[in-house]
Structures are given as C-alpha cells and as structure tokens.
Amino acid sequence: MPDSPTLSFGLQLQPQSRMVSIVRRFVEESFEKIVGDPEAVFRVSLAVHELLENAAKYAVGDKTGLQVHFDSNGSAASIKLTNQTTPAHIERLRACISEIQAAREPFVLYQTMMRRTFGIQEESGLGLARIRAEGELDLSLEIDGTMVTIVASCLPTGRTSV
Amino acid sequence: MSKAWTEGMKESDFSAQATVNDRRIQVSLVGTADLTIKAQLDHFLRQVHSEAQRCLAEEVTVDVRHLEFMNSSCLKSFVWWVSTVQEQPAVGKYRIVFVSSPTVYWQRRSLNALACLANEIISVQA
User: Using N-to-C axis directions, what is the helix angle for A38-58 and B105-117, rounded to 10°?
Assistant: First the structure.
C-alpha cells in the first residue's frame, strides 16, 4: 500500500504555444489544493510548462500526450510527455539529455548552458537543464521510431519507481 | 535630468512598462512571459538597454513581483541583456536590480541563476 495517495491525470492535446500556460495553470491550481508542498507543485508545473513548450516548438503532427503523477505529500512525481518529432530533433534531445544526466552539478551545467545561449537563436536545451536544476527532477528519454517520450521525475528515498 | 522616456508593451497575458527618471530606469513586468511574447520581450529589453546607454543609467530596477511565470525562452532574453551589459566598457555598465516576491516560486530559483551569471551587476531584492 503506498505511503500516500497518488494523484494523476493524462491529457491529449495539440502542441500549440497558447495552450502551454493554460495547462501549467491547470496543474498548479489542481495540485496546490491537495498537495501540502507548494514548492513541489511549482517544480512539477515548471516541468509541465517547459516540456509542453518543447513539443510546441519541435513536435511533428497534432497530438501530444501528457501524463502527470504526484504523491499527495509532494515527495514523488513524474511527468511524461510523448510526441512525434524529426530524427534530427531526436538526436539533439538524446545529446542534451545525456549531457544533463552526466552532470554531477546540475546547477553548474545550467549556468554553462545559459552562457552558451548568448547570441544564438537555435535550440539550446535550456528548458531541459532548467527542469533538472531548478525543478530538481531527473530526466530520461524513451524513443520508439519517431515517437519520443521525455520523463521528468523525482522519487522519495528508497523508492525505485513512481 | 534626462529627457522623459517611456517604453511599454501589452499583450493578452503580459505587459511591460519602463520609465526613466534621472539616471535610473524602472521596469515593471506583469503576467506570464512565455513563448507567445518572446519576440516582443526581446524588442522591449533592447529598447531598455538602448535607453540605459543613452542616459548613462546607473541602475535599472526590474519589478517582477507580479510576473506569474517566465519560461526558459524568455529567461534567454534576460541572459542576452545581462551578458550585453557585462560586455560594456565601464562607462556603459549599469546595475540591474530585480524586485521579487517570495511567494512566486519560480523567481527565487531563476533569478538566483541569473544573478550567478553576473553577480557584479545583478542583485535580487525579495
């Protein structure tokens, strides 16, 4: 039996930039009434926003799937975003998430990536580094052909899955 | 005293206002800074920087207490601004002071990250 009840929901939506803040507010307003830790809610809503914006910018096709799971005490969470994208974007995602996973100091990498963005307009991966550094969430990538799922998660000590 | 100058922008869910008084510029950001206003925010910050250079500003105060959220794309706009000020010769440099709210959770973490990029010119007031 879990230590605390798990709250979860899933959405299928078109990856449009105007939808991103609407969904983030929905997550914040829904969870902050139930979860006792507002900073934990912020960290999840930050990840939801940055992942959905990635989809709005780089997804191919008109369907994006979002799943959010949250322990009601705020101690464990996972956010999964699935969409179709291009092989070139998948390679950039793979490289970016590998770099983030390898970083011993997520905040130091975040600062490095911030400096890298100066003067460039193209994809920087800063949103993913922000999820890791500010949101304190682990990142992983699942690839199935041209479908990608980015998972951002945090686990309480001693647990191996949410 | 510098000539009066104001710059502003208003979108459906975001507004920005800047005014100059002597050699101090006051900026106020309200709403949500996300992908939908990134281009406008870039333009706004360029205008603020240009005015700061023109009036030899000592300080720009940025009030973000009512800025509900800022995404990483808009954070990049601030990285551009901060990095540009850092690159100026001494005469063109000015301080950037963020006025933040402790109850808006993105602000402590994101502004701290920005301040660490350039702590000689940035300070954060909560």
Answer: 70
Interface of A with B (CB under 8 A): 17-18, 20-21, 24, 38-39, 42, 46, 49-50, 53, 56-57, 107, 110-111, 114-115, 117-119, 124, 126-127, 130, 133-134
Q: For residue range B42-59, list pLDDT tens digits in order.
A: 999 999 999 999 999 999
CATH code of domain B6-125: 3.30.750.24
Domain assignments of chain A as residue spans, ordered by start: 6-154
Instruction: Please name the residue that has the structure tokens 């000689």.
Output: B120
Q: Which two tokens stand for residue A110?
A: 């975040």
Taking the model in full, what pTM does it have?
Answer: 0.91
Distance CA B78, CA B92 (A): 17
Q: Measured between alpha carbons, how far is residue B28 from residues B20, B44, B81 in Å?
A: 12, 11, 16
pLDDT band, residue A156 (cuts 50/70/90) = low
Question: In terms of C-beta density within 10 A (0-12 exposed, 13-18 middle, 19 or more buried), how is residue A21 classed?
Answer: buried
Extents of the domains making up chain B: 6-125
- The answer for B 44-103 residues in CB contact with A (under 8 A) is 69, 71-73, 75-76, 79-80, 83
Provide ipTM, 2 decimals. 0.90
Q: What are the phi and psi torsion angles at B74 (to 5°)?
A: -75, -30
d(CA B73, CA A57) in angstroms, rounded, equals: 11
CATH number of this structure's domain A6-154, picked from the four choices 3.30.565.10, 2.60.40.1470, 2.60.120.260, 3.30.300.160? 3.30.565.10
A147-154/A77-85 β-pairing: antiparallel
Residue A91: helix, strand or coil by DSSP? helix
Residue with structure tokens 């990142």? A139
